[in-house]
Amino acid sequence: MMTDRSTAVHGLALAGARLATWDGLHPLFDPWFQAGRDAANKGACGDHLVYRDGTPVGEEPEGDDRTGQPTMSATRLGWISTARHVASYSAGQLAGAVIVTRTLGYRVPVGALLVGAGINGFTHLVIDKRQPLLWLASRAGKGGYVEHCTVVRKVDEEGTVQIESSGPGSAAFELDLLCTKSAVAR
């Protein structure tokens, strides 16, 4: 069966344009369009109660009366923060894909765009939540790498170094980039 070479070339060009667009927009919409509260709380995990800002119940600063303020489990706050971040990230990626494809004269079906954005958003959600990514790294034999490759960003009031295991420079961050680049290449 012969195919129209021109159609194949156009299809490859469209796929390349979409991949380049999402890859190029990732650094913009991932950190720059992410709210600070979501960046701080998306990795929250545990059954202990926290306030909306991530402060654990009972650890409020002195004089900060939060009586009657809503609380939730840390895990729930983490998922809410991650989902909110992924929603803004996905909206930006989707808008970029529409702009580029229409500029090139293509009208990609809405269903196809939504499926692509959904897959991209879901993988981003799982990766950014961190626990599934760290579980996968452990199963792949990379637990030692994750434990070893951490970053020190803060020293608390008592002078104790606070180790961060998921920000830039950490193994979790590098694994995130690896997974993100792999997902974009698909």
Structure description:
This protein has 186 residues and is mainly α. Helix content is 61%, strand content 8%. It has a two-stranded antiparallel ribbon with strand order 1-2. Strand 3 and strand 4 form a beta hairpin. Helix 1 crosses helix 3 and helix 4 packs antiparallel against helix 7. It is elongated, with a radius of gyration of 20 Å. It starts with a helix and ends with a helix. The C terminus is likely disordered.
How are the elements arranged and paired?
Blueprint: H1 5-32, H2 36-41, E1 49-51, E2 71-73, H3 74-103, H4 110-129, H5 131-139, H6 143-148, E3 151-155, E4 161-164, H7 171-185
Antiparallel strand pairs: 1-2, 3-4
Helix pairs in contact: 1-3, 3-4, 4-7
Anisotropy-based shape: elongated
Note the gap between the termini: 26 Å
| Classification by helices and strands | mainly alpha
Question: Helical element count?
Answer: 7
Q: C-alpha Rg, in Å?
A: 20 Å
How many DSSP E strands? 4
Main beta sheet strand tally, sense and closure: 2 strands, antiparallel
Helix content: 55-70%
